[in-house]
Amino acid sequence: MNHDICRCISLKADGYPADFTFYPNFFSHEEQRLLLSAALHKLDMSENRKVRRRQRELLASGTLKLLNSIEQVFLPDEYYTFEEGHYDNVIRRYREIHVSSWPDDQPELQRLLQRLQELHPPVPTQTHILHLASDGEIQPHVDNTEASGSWILGVSLGSPRGLRLENAEDPSDTFEMILPSGSVYIQRDSTRYNYKHSILLRGDVGLTRFNGGQRLSIMIRVRQNYLVHGILG
Ligand SMILES: O=C(O)CCC(=O)C(=O)O
Ligand SMILES: [Fe+2]
Predict the structure, then answer these.
(1) For a substitution probing ligand 1, which of 91, 94, 214 has the most ligand atoms within 8 Å of its CB?
(2) Which residues form the Fe2OG dioxygenase domain (predicted)?
(3) Which of 17, 117, 137, 179 is 20 to 30 A (C-alpha) from 165?
(4) How many Cα atoms within 13 Å fall on the side-chain side of residue 112?
């Protein structure tokens, strides 16, 4: 069943816009848990001591329900320090961190990261973790063209949310789809530069409804100046 809705001019045979690739089930449930736990750990390391103590106390209290859903990997919202986002900020209610390295003593995690690397050209990248609160969202924007290059890869973990693409020149040209946990998308070239993207809080796409919930994305971008480094050594 195709839940995607599109009022845009051209879709590829796979039902997605040009220069957009989607892997709906890239990571299994267990792999999602591993990646999400590692990403949350990175973010939690930069929480202050008081917040970390409260997190530890909650975990030790045994009151958390041990359900198997991916959303249960998150603690309740009040155990995280989410930024509100300023008036000129497109992201609202989030935590974020730039990642320069992942733990190298977890071979399974390394294998998952390796599989992600195989999806994109072997060029220098920058990785960024973005955690949205249950009521967090990302408003329409084009990523800074000076900060990163022609493609952007996003791994979605946690609650499903809608992704909306909107032609920056023609607001009637839009595409909406659900990003389920464990999926990976890549936007490049025309989609990356000519379309604004947003992560929706709630809504419907086709027959599927999404309604908030914590979501964490691992964003991998090609460094803007890698060619210069390549040429100049
Ligand atoms: O979380 C996502 O999938 C998109 C994040 C995003 O748009 C950004 O970091 O610029
Ligand atoms: Fe973005």
Answers:
(1) 91
(2) 121-226
(3) 117
(4) 24
Report strand pairing: 195-200 vs 20-23: unpaired
157 Cβ contact partners less than 8 Å away, ≥ 6 residues apart:
32, 35, 36, 39, 70, 181, 182, 215, 216, 217, 218
Instruction: Compute how many other C-beta atoms are within 10 angstroms of the C-beta atom of residue 197.
Output: 23
SS3 assignment, position 104: coil
Which atom, in ligand 1's list, is nearest to the CA of 217?
Answer: 1
Give the domain ranges of the chain: 5-53+69-232
Q: Please state the atom number of ligand 1 nearest to the C-alpha of residue 143.
A: 10
Judged against a pLDDT cut of 80, whether residue 16 lies above it is answered with: yes
| pLDDT per position as a tens digit, 48-107 | 999 999 999 999 998 887 778 999 999 999 999 999 997 678 999 999 999 999 999 999
CATH of domain 5-53+69-232: 2.60.120.590
Which of 79-88, 107-116, 165-174 is modeled with the greatest confidence?
A: 107-116
Q: What is the pLDDT of residues 181-198, one digit of tens each?
A: 999 999 999 999 999 999
Q: Tell me how far the alpha carbon of residue 28 is from its chain's centroid.
A: 16
ipTM above 0.90, yes or no: yes
